[in-house]
Design brief:
Radius of gyration: 25 Å
Number of strands: 23
CATH topology of the largest domain: BirA Bifunctional Protein, domain 2
CATH superfamily of the largest domain: Bira Bifunctional Protein, Domain 2
Structural class: alpha+beta
CATH architecture of the largest domain: 2-Layer Sandwich
Number of helices: 14
Distance between the termini: 24 Å
Number of domains: 3
Largest sheet: 11 strands, mixed
Shape: globular
Strand order of the largest sheet: 3-7-8-14-11-10-9-22-23-21-20
CATH class of the largest domain: Alpha Beta
RNA sequence: CGGGGUGUAGCGCAGUUGGUAGCGCGCUUGCUUUGGGAGCAAGAUGCCGGGUGUUCGAGUCACCUCACUCCGACCA
């Protein structure tokens, strides 16, 4: 696969310059555009269609687990943001402030939401009185703003689109269960929809969300060996409830503090798709979220019967997949390159030679395999192939991750790997923040998560040699 | 926020010792083509990122500024 010949000249090869490859793909696939505000991107139709497909499927999964959608305002008064100490400390450095309404200076400045915990808390305070009001299982699809210093399309933008789930429960157990449940929904989505394998685990205190008791995460490995945090789920305990004075009367007629969670995934997932599946010819889209799943390319379409046949095939396929027929007067070669760049999973070529034999040529984007398919079998064959593409994308990504996951038993070994082999490093940890800081400082890796699936690599901390508590995934991250 | 790079046509770039703005791709029109980014012909497109200065004269020199981009620190 690495030896695959590069056929599109405009895209920088990923081995040559991964960062440039990434921006080339984003541009050439027409996923987004830049604007006059740094870090604020336009989701162009093709990128937007991918996001819409992500939203549609994920939203269905939220509904299936009992969640309801709401819409909160985008402004948070400074005094509201400040109510939970850790939370405000975490976010204050990167919020955007509104200071004027028209020409009048506001009494109190408003921040543009960087996340909406405080708004949900204010709302819960108004609507939760009894245990009968619980749980509330909410989600919203909105954009948020975080004034990042360095930005990259999809991976880190100042405004980004996401979903944030917020729930409130009568007991800690229920809230903890919810936190894990939604983490599993995310992992399920990444693996079964995006074909990206993820490591599930919990963050160390250092990497925890501001205000959370526990932050759970799914970590994916990109083509260049860097980790991408692809979704997080937070357990808040009753910390926010206490800070916001949210209380309810329980069955035993006692006033109690409820327990909360929040969880989010963002347009960063599009970055994950690009970097997990893409190749030197551009984007490779997992079929389930591909705006176009099959592109029909008529060959020598001026010849009698070709366009008619292409139309007929397109019409038939519209019942089994998202299909587009490109009837523009660009040459076939141009179209091949174009749709490869855009990651369309299947290309169907139909020309005079095929029509004679009642067949067509189907080419898979992921491995370029060329298959001759009888026109009588299209409706069965196309969905089968889409499933195969999904399965093989997942399999390849998983194999690559496994190949790029190393184990380290000593500091020297870890440093050696961190310096020379991009990827995940599994290593034991004593639980001390000091060791985490030292590893970051001296090797550049951060703790990605404490995975649920623990294996005891050794009994000593990779950094200080003291007795180890947990095995962690370490790595360089986006 | 530190370090590097780049700003000239829609995109990618050239522009020498300062002297009236160029190339490729794309775009428009026509004809011929069509199984891996087609060929020929004729067109259209410029606040040289912005400002100040030096100069008879600035895309070119100086200073300032803004934006983008890459690498670090901080973060979904």
């Amino acid at each position: 696969m690495a030896e695959q010949k590069k056929m599109v000249e405009e895209i920088t090869s990923m081995d040559e310059d991964f960062a440039k490859w990434y921006t080339d793909v984003v541009k050439k696939a027409e996923l987004c555009g830049y604007t006059s505000v740094k870090g604020c991107i336009v989701l162009r139709p093709y990128g937007c269609a991918i996001w819409e497909n992500i939203q549609k499927i994920m939203d269905g999964m939220f509904k299936a687990t009992g969640h309801e959608n709401v819409c909160m305002p985008m402004f948070i008064p400074e005094s509201l943001l400040e109510k939970e100490k850790d939370h405000v400390e975490g976010f204050a450095p990167e919020v955007a402030w509104v200071t004027h309404g028209g020409s009048e200076k506001l009494e109190e400045r408003l921040c543009v939401r960087p996340t909406s915990e405080t708004l949900f808390c204010e709302h819960y305070k108004q609507t939760v009185q009894s245990y009968r009001d619980l749980p509330k299982l909410y989600n919203q699809w909105v954009s948020v703003v975080r004034w990042e210093k360095t930005t990259r399309p999809f991976l880190r933008t100042r405004e980004f689109w996401w979903q944030e789930g917020h729930t409130i429960h009568a007991t800690a157990e229920q809230a903890q269960e919810e936190t894990i449940k939604m983490l599993n929904v995310y992992a399920d989505f990444c693996e079964n929809v995006l074909a990206i394998p993820v490591v599930k685990g919990v963050k160390t205190e250092k990497e925890r969300f501001a205000g959370a008791e526990d932050t759970y995460t799914i970590e994916a490995l990109m083509h260049d060996g860097k980790a991408l945090q692809s979704g997080t789920s937070h357990y808040f305990g009753d910390g926010f409830a206490k800070a916001f004075q949210i209380q309810f009367t329980d069955k035993d007629n006692k006033l109690k503090y409820p327990f909360q969670t929040s969880w989010g995934t963002s347009t960063r997932l599009i970055g994950a798709i690009i970097m997990a599946h893409g190749d030197n010819n551009g984007l490779v889209l997992p079929p389930k979220i591909a705006p176009i799943q099959t592109v029909v390319v008529p060959i020598a379409y001026h010849k009698p019967g070709v366009l008619e046949k292409a139309d007929e095939i397109t019409e038939r396929l519209s019942g089994v997949c998202r299909v587009k027929c490109d009837k523009t007067d660009n040459t076939p070669g141009w179209k091949f390159a174009e749709y490869e760049m855009k990651g369309v999973p299947l290309r169907l070529e139909i020309g005079p030679k095929d029509i004679e034999k009642n067949q067509c040529v189907i080419v898979r984007r992921d491995n370029r395999e060329k298959i001759f398919v009888s026109l009588d079998e299209l409706e069965e064959k196309i969905p089968e192939l889409l499933d195969e593409v999904h399965a093989s994308l997942y399999k390849n990504a998983l194999e690559r991750r496994e190949k790029m996951t190393y184990e380290a038993r000593s500091f020297e070994e870890l440093k050696e790997i961190a310096d020379n082999k991009p990827g995940f490093i599994k290593a034991m940890w004593c639980g001390d923040r000091a060791c985490e800081d030292k590893l970051k400082e001296e090797t550049g890796v951060t703790s990605r998560c404490i995975p649920f699936e623990q294996t005891e690599i050794s009994d000593k901390c990779v950094c200080c040699g003291k007795p180890a508590k947990k095995m962690l995934y370490w790595g360089k991250a986006y």
